[in-house]
Fold each of these.
Amino acid sequence: MIDTAAFAARCRGMFVQPTATLRDHAQPLPPWQIAAREHALPLAVASAAVSTLLNWAIPPWFLGVEPFGLSLDFVLLHLVMDTAANLFGILLVACVVMVFSRMCAGRPDFGASFVLAALAATPYCVGKALVPLPVIGPLAWFAGLIYSLVLLYRGGLPVLMIPAQNRAKHFALTLLSLLMIGMVAVMALGQWAQSVVGSAEWQ
């Protein structure tokens, strides 16, 4: 069973005492499976659940649907896909962080990278959940993204044990790689969408 009280304390700690929270959860370092079950999974599900409920109550304007007018199938699909996207994002960040941690004389194991990625993703997932809210939602998402990147940098020493002189290098390489992966993903998604639209027009 997931310890919800401990999960809530970790989330709160990543906002009010991030350095202490990162240090406390890196010594001793839990297996990545434990971090996934106790933090990454509930974080991904909670973020997706709030986002889904808000999208249900405040549907995007381009759908042309009244509040609470989305079908149950759409709501469930949104919940599943958003949860999967959150988990995949944490996993992707952990993999990139691990690759460059090895290059920068930090911990080479996946467990440390996953713990850092999961904890640092907390503000991002909170902000992402609020995106459907007009005006304040996108601002919360952007603020959460920036703060998560700050936590990713600050966790280089207490979690990954990266020497101080290599922290900036590790962060820069990680950020650049994630940006490049994101750009490729957006381009691929755009081409796929164009092909789908083109096929529909010919039918």
Amino acid sequence: MKLSAFFSFYTLLIFLTIGCKEEPPTQPTKSDPSADPAIEEIKRLMRTGEEINASDKMDIPGLRAQALAILNHRLKTHKETYAIIESGVWEYEFVFDGKMSEPGRYNGVWIDFKNDHTYEYGTRGNIEGGGRYNYHFDRGELVLVDNNKGRRPQEFTVKIQNDVMVLVGTITYGDRNTQMKLDKVTEAIRQG
């Protein structure tokens, strides 16, 4: 009787061991759309607003109209400006948009938030553009609408600690895959 129980237990243990083996991971196949480099390129282009959304172009004018309506509403209801974001100039240290930027790629590239809800950006002594913004302190959200009508608006959640700001893109205007780290620098960066 004991021998029969031992034999049954041993057989069950063998079946469990064989049945619980891990399957080796499978490699992506040609039919797997996530493995196609062209799909990755389309995703990148969709984020920048340069190209297609599967069947039609990204509606930049529509997105801008929506963002401007939100921006104008926030400026009426939340007129406050915050020294934490507008004092000094912010220099980009890196940008991650699916891949990490090369070290030093953004040396001298800056953005300057003003207390009248406008901003300018550029490289060293050159101002390359500007726009309007709203920083909602309670929600930690930053909305940017560029003066260039061909650029889509952007929205980020903001994390600030001392002289470092991290911007994490939201899904609202297609920035979900973008993160940036900026360092507060002196106004001298704008002189070159």
Amino acid sequence: MGDCLLGMTVSDLFSLPSSAVLIAVFELGWGWIVVITGIFAVIEMLFVKLGIYHQIWWKTLYTSIGLLVFFPFSKAWFRRLNCRHERVLSFFTLLAILFFSRGQMSIIIFQYFASGKVTIKWVEALGVPAFMLRIPMTLYVAILLTILIMVRARWFWKAAAIAGFLTIDLVLFKMHIMQVRTYWHFVYLTVTNVLVLLIGQAFVHLVRKNEVPDTSAS
């Protein structure tokens, strides 16, 4: 499990985003998109063949189809974001950044530090992996922080949100939904939420600073 999560973290944090940025920034065409997708597919098949990575229900074909959609979509999204600062586009861009940033940080906390886990017995009885239960927890944090950043809320409200997240974690702990091995777990989660907030602030500042006016209507 640790090796699988390490591979997923490296892929999600470096390989896929770097490839998407490369395609978007240099405006690479379908030829390059197909080649890069093929490289990822071959690497995945090689890892399965060597026993490094095990597929349960996932297929390499799904990876290929997903990347053939993801890369052009990222390219179009980047072009639009770089052209004009639109609140809806900026909102969902920021939401995606905060969601995946916190998601990857949560993997480090829950799996690598092994400081705690989230468990709901009736959900796990349905065959849902334990780590999937962290997705809604990450999503609500990302949504609230995105809203606070986009409306330019005062730091008091942002600090209140961070404190609120900690309170919810403590309630989940009392309800035995979140199990912890050390109380440092709550410190890790709080620091993670602060870092995610700072990442969001930096992104919005960068977008507003480098906004290029849309002159197409003139």
Amino acid sequence: MTVDQARQVLVVVLNHEKFKMADPGMSIDGPWRGDEEGTLYRPGYVDFGLVYSNRKANTSNVLGHFAVNVFTGDVWNTVRCKRYTFAGLSKIQTIISARTGKKLANAKVAFDEVGCF
């Protein structure tokens, strides 16, 4: 999956979670890069931040950090260690998995990949 596709999957999740993505103050920061040029921050995942900027007050708030698995479409809130699951996302993940040949990891393996304890 490309970075743009990972961002699209994340937008599906954020809309499902009732974030007002149409608000002009909302923006997705990232993808975050690894230390080496051309690498991802977290191997196998594309990481993003969700930011709300209030231009009138000249303030910004980080609303969350998220990781999207490039092989399965698995989406995590990496601060809360929350894995997102809902019917619309499952349909997208089935399509991604069919293309990559990879299945969603079980909770323990996925927790370890994301860095949750």
